[in-house]
Amino acid sequence: MVKQTIQIFARVKPSVRKQQQGIYSIEEDEKLTPSLEILLPRDLADGFVNNKRESYKFRFQRIFDQDAKQEIIFEIIAKPVAESVLAGYNGTIFAYGQTGSGKTFTITGGAERYSDRGIIPRTLSYIFEQLQKDSSKVYTTHISYLEIYNECGYDLLDPRHEASKLEDLPKVTTLEDPDQNIHLKNLSLHQATTEEEALNLLFLGDTNRMIAETPMNQASTRSHCIFTVHLTSKEPGSATVRHAKLHLVDLAGSERVAKTGVGGLLLTEAKYINLSLHYLEQVIIALSEKHRTHIPYRNSMMTSVLRDSLGGNCMTTMIATLSLEKRNIDESISTCRFAQRVALIKNEAVLNEEIDPRLMIVRLQKEIADLKAELAVATGELRTEALTEAELHQLEKLIASFLEDQDPESRLEVGADMRKIHHCFHHFKKLLNDKSAIKNPVSSESTHQACQEPLEGEEYTKLRDLLKQRDNEINILVNMLKKEKKKTQDALYLSSMEKNEARTPQNSPFISKSPASQSTSVSSVLSQDHSIYRHSSSLLHKKTGMREEMSLGRQEAFEIFKRDHADSVTIEDNKQILKQRFSEAKALGESINETRSKIGQLKDAITQRHLQQVALGVSENTVTPSLPDLQEEKLRSQLEEEKSRYKSTFMRLKALKVEIEHLQLLMDKAKLKLQKEFDVWWAEEAASLQVNSPAANPQEGVKPVPQQDQPRHLSKKSSQRWEAEDGADSVDICDRNARRILPSPRPSEHSQGSSSSRTQLQGRQISSIPLTGDSQTDSDILAFIKARQSVLQKKCLGSN
Ligand SMILES: Nc1ncnc2c1ncn2[C@@H]1O[C@H](COP(=O)(O)OP(=O)(O)OP(=O)(O)O)[C@@H](O)[C@H]1O
């Protein structure tokens, strides 16, 4: 806050007549404030006896004589006020004096020369120059221009000014808020970003003032003008905004018209001709009297508008303009007297700062959000909306890094969000349940736990399931082997039966007399392994995507195809490696658990040792042991060793986990490939068989069951086959033909081979078997026959 009386300056207008100069003198003493002495000329008309005062002395801050230039007026009077406005204080400069004393010339300036520019244009120039120089703040400048005439306010910047009469323009009125701040209604504010824009507004207002002149409003003499610069400043990033106003006031002529009697100009009782000035004087008188509590600001519009400037929050300066000519002596004395009273008024200027309402809203909104979050935690209230995918992902990552962190002191920071806290608990519970579920069914509890400790729950479950599946697969393979053995036995039995029963196929357990019973017979033979197949199928389906509806014959063929496929070696190898890696992981897990418990023990030992040392120090009254504790140091180095072991083992386990995952992927891929290749092969075989089967040739119908003498009508190759089956002499033929209809271990080679001759052969061989006409059933039958031939071939090879 700056406490300051209103600064008063005097400016004497240049006199037209040189001889008038002797009626005043200016006394300037360096130690004292300058004084203006107005000398009353002796008027001989008053007679010899004259007891009137001959001079009046008035003190001013500074007195500018007639030769004072506009520039010095600005420098001494206006510049300090402009600076305080730039600093954020309100400022007012008003010119008071009789008509023609140079108020307008001082405030606005003369129209003739550039050097005659008055306080307003010079102040605008200075302000904009300073704003440009100062980059530490963001400034906004607005201009308003108010004219008060006959107690009515008019907006000189109202664009309607030109076209309308003054009486028709909306009046500017004063409004007072509860804090007694005055607001002006209908007074427009115009932003000016440059000096030029501001000057244009000044000229616009002055022009409007001239246009509005009427006989009632004789020039500027009877009106007051208040040109106001509204300056807002704000530091970037700060919420505080400063507002400052600079009123540059050109008051109406203050003259008191003296009605004298006959004769000369006398100091007679004055008559107020301007009500506003009268009220202004009342306010000034009231303010200058120490004990006056009521100040009649509200009596006039001008005093209301200038309320802050007079005895309020403002740095105010008055310029008393004097036209010190003999005829103006009394008015000049009156002006000086007025100035002396004004000089007694004390103002208290404060920085006009306020918080930017927009920033305030943002700040309050944030505060509300923070408080709500705090309240939600305090009351246990949950936020209703679920966590987003991104939030969950972030949280999982946090949990994972928390679990992996070896530092027992590490913390999981999820903030005050109850949803996240609950999610963490849920996650840990799941981990715990997974562990205990794994621990119980296995006999080697401790080793299993040790293996699982460093692995995540889900990962462990996955690996465990895979192991189970592998075991199942092994079981299936064993079953398959059994089945193959059994089939070989069946084949041997068949072979002997065929021999013994002198080629009576109708008695064969595989071929019944009627087509209807034929399929039943086949399925009844195969049904013995049905349960095994179904189980195997479901497992294969799980791992390789094999269709559940795969027929039994096809499944059987697939098993053989798989067994003989080149990739099966790779799959088997990978299986073995995987088993190996699992046992390695188990061993590493055990080792990690062991190391962890060792770390725990060492930490306890260090704490114990430390406590012992402290207790020892207390008992011996020494603060710290003088020598380093060797035992503690040894423990610490052991701890470090264990920690690094833990770390390296953990890293190995991690790498192993990656390898296991990779192997599993490889196996899955290989199986999928196998499945696809098998599908291709199967489709090819089925197509070729269908072409040659009776079902595909309705004209042939179902062929009768071959009779005893029928082989004679068979083609050479076909009879050779049957013959070969009859005796060991024909093993070579048997082998060759059997190979041709067997699924090839390499389907690619198979497809590239002499498929036409093979198809022909197959057609001949199979055409002797009566089929049902149903494509699915027939393909099952044919597949079964092939499998049977495969077994026979093996048998041939075995006996060879
Ligand atoms: N210091 C000065 N130097 C030169 N000319 C001046 C000076 N002061 C005033 N004048 C001239 O005197 C005349 C009257 O001055 P001005 O209009 O400023 O008086 P005023 O006090 O504003 O009168 P009113 O009350 O009627 O508005 C103008 O022509 C102006 O140019």
Automatic annotation (TrEMBL):
UniProt-listed InterPro entries: KIF6/9_C, Kinesin-like_fam, Kinesin_motor_CS, Kinesin_motor_dom, Kinesin_motor_dom_sf, P-loop_NTPase
UniProt keyword Isomerase, yes or no: no
UniProt-listed Pfam families: KIF9, Kinesin
Predominant subcellular localization, coarse grouping: cytoplasm
One GO CC annotation: microtubule
Coiled coil: 636-673
Ranges of residues in domain Kinesin motor: 5-345
Extent of Polar residues compositional bias: 750-776
UniProt KW keywords: ATP-binding, Coiled coil, Cytoplasm, Cytoskeleton, Microtubule, Motor protein, Nucleotide-binding
Gene3D superfamilies xrefs: Kinesin motor domain
An example molecular function term from Gene Ontology annotations: ATP binding
Family in the record: Belongs to the TRAFAC class myosin-kinesin ATPase superfamily. Kinesin family.
Protein name: Kinesin-like protein
Biological classification of the source: Eukaryota, Metazoa, Chordata, Craniata, Vertebrata
Gene this protein is translated from: Kif6
